[in-house]
Amino acid sequence: MARLIEELKKLPGIGSKSAQRLAFHILRSSDDDAEALAGAVRDVKAKLRLCSVCNNITDVDPCVYCSSATRNQRLVCVVEEPTNIAAIEKTKHFNGVYHVLHGSISPLNGVGPEQLRISSLVRRVENGNIDEVILATNPTVEGEATATYLSGQLRRTGLKITRIAMGIPVGSDIEYTDEITMLKAMEGRREL
Amino acid sequence: MARLIEELKKLPGIGSKSAQRLAFHILRSSDDDAEALAGAVRDVKAKLRLCSVCNNITDVDPCVYCSSATRNQRLVCVVEEPTNIAAIEKTKHFNGVYHVLHGSISPLNGVGPEQLRISSLVRRVENGNIDEVILATNPTVEGEATATYLSGQLRRTGLKITRIAMGIPVGSDIEYTDEITMLKAMEGRREL
Q: Does B169 contact A163 at a Cβ distance shorter than 8 Å?
């Protein structure tokens, strides 16, 4: 019991009290439930790996996006983290594939381009039949630096490189918009 | 004293307690300060009016933007409220002039196009030498409806009509972006 509590405490956001409560819940639950949890924990490490094409976390290689016949394999959306894919999938309007960098360029944290999955993206673009690369890194300093670096690396391939729009979020008010976002919204205005 | 407290209570966000505190502060302040406050309250109604060109609140007519020789009078930015001008001015990169609608189309609240300063905008566009109209209404249902209506009204003039960018605010994270904003950010992507 003490060992289980100790192990649970290592999880983020779980303190002594929570770990104890979780441990007692597991103790009281059925043998099947406990076995399912133990199996799921073991499997996540054993079975999940990175997709050899896009570096997304997956249990089949290539991942569901890269192996899909209904998705546009010529449209690649570059994101920082696997979780960003969920945010883009939620729009239900993107039908291309992804490339996960697993981070962004951040010299202050010692993360340079060579620590990210950039060379595999460049190879993929050079080899594959790709029409457009969408740079969907975050609109932060690191994400912008990464997008700028990538556009420099990919420019010589001559294909279409786009950056997602920065601007005022839908449902928001101009009055409460910070000046840099307002500036980007003005710069990024589109003809109707 | 009771009359002053009653009058102060009419201000938004000022209750009995606050009104009393303000009244006592005025009582204790110098004659000059009290007179300055009284004069400022009187003047705001007597001297401020709407600019005859852009409907901005101003004490000189035409307003500082419309009468400026250094601003581009051929670039008009349409906003819902006079306060929105401050948000755009803060970017320090917009050098055109404004047109204030004093609201947005909202059928649920009984506000139709005829309640807004739209006819004066159409006249201004038809008469004046204008190159571009930027529709900077809010990215809300009402603001979008107003932008769509305006672009329909102005399209026949044949000039450039643009809409400010909707997208992810600068410094924000894709993971925390709602799906409609994410969709707009993808749709509004720009070539690098």
A: no
